[in-house]
Design brief:
mainly alpha
């Protein structure tokens, strides 16, 4: 007589088989985790990611400094793009490392990565502000105007006034003409010499002081030109008209220079790079160094990695 197992017996047999299968899988997984080669490979993978992050940060910092120091908008933009690309790579590697640590990292490693992540957020915020400033190059543009069109306009003004004085050397008003022409030229040159310090200045207060001096000298120039124009013999004089026209041109360019100088993007970006950015960069690298040391110091039975095992 053949005995058929009942439904309940079948369920117990199926449950037993499932339990056995689960135990086998757990044992295989446990043996895999205890495999020194697998552990060593997992450690190397994490350490390599940290090393790539360190290199990426260094590359981003180098490109950022090149963007700050570049002399054209095109070069600044190209280096800024390189810096942003390198920073984005670090973020991808950070996320990948975060996933690996979730799978098998220690709590200490996770804490160190969290520390780096907070610093990296600050790094990205500072970097974004810095690069946005660096690509504008307002100080460099101000210098280009000051030593280019502005200087050219004053040179033409000076030449016209010199010719005016020479042409009237024998007139009854010669002394007055020479004095007014010379005073106007000197005052205009004083305005010009105040522009470079203004462009290089970081303090708004000092800029205000420089602009106040410029205003005084500017009033002197216009007063002297008006005085020349009041002389009957110089009414409608071509040289005087040229001098007045070139000074008006200089004043317009000077206004553009002061506007660009006030934006101060090169001075501000350089200051941020040398101060806030440098500090957070060093902190980020320090956090990554500690994280890599923690990974390398993870014990693997029968294996030393990164440094000799300490004797008992």
């Amino acid at each position: 007589m053949t005995l058929r197992p009942g439904f309940r017996d079948g369920l117990w047999m199926a449950a037993g088989a499932a339990t056995l299968l689960l135990l086998i899988l757990l044992m295989l997984h446990f043996r895999k985790q205890l495999n020194p080669a697998a552990q060593l490979a997992f450690k190397a993978e994490r350490a390599d990611l940290v090393g790539r992050m360190q290199l990426g940060l260094a590359s981003a910092s180098e490109a950022e400094k090149s963007a700050v120091l570049a002399i054209t908008d095109q070069e600044s933009q190209a280096f800024a793009d390189q810096a942003r690309t390198a920073t984005a790579g670090v973020e991808r590697e950070r996320q990948e490392l975060e996933q690996l640590l979730t799978r098998g990292g220690t709590q200490g490693e996770k804490d160190l990565l969290d520390e780096f992540s907070q610093l990296f957020i600050k790094f990205q915020r500072i970097d974004d502000e810095l690069l946005n400033l660096a690509v504008q190059n307002t100080n460099l543009k101000a210098y280009a105007l000051a030593f280019g069109p502005a200087a050219g306009a004053l040179n033409e003004m000076s030449a016209a006034l010199s010719h005016l004085a020479a042409a009237n050397a024998d007139s009854p008003d010669a002394k007055k003409v020479i004095r007014l022409a010379f005073d106007a030229e000197i005052a205009a040159l004083r305005v010009q010499t105040l522009l470079p310090p203004h462009i290089a200045e970081a303090s708004d207060t000092r800029m205000d002081e420089l602009e106040a001096l410029m205003t005084q000298e500017d009033e002197q120039v216009r007063s002297d030109l008006t005085g020349l124009g009041a002389l009957p013999k110089l009414s409608g004089d071509a040289d005087l008209a040229t001098a007045a026209s070139r000074y008006a041109q200089f004043r317009e360019i000077k206004s553009q220079i002061l506007t660009l100088s006030r934006e101060n993007t090169n001075v501000r970006s350089l200051s941020i790079s040398l101060n806030q950015k440098r500090k957070v960069m060093l902190s980020c690298q320090e956090a990554l160094r500690h994280l890599q040391e923690a990974i390398l110091e993870e014990p693997i039975e029968g294996v030393t990695y990164g440094r000799p095992a300490k004797p008992r």
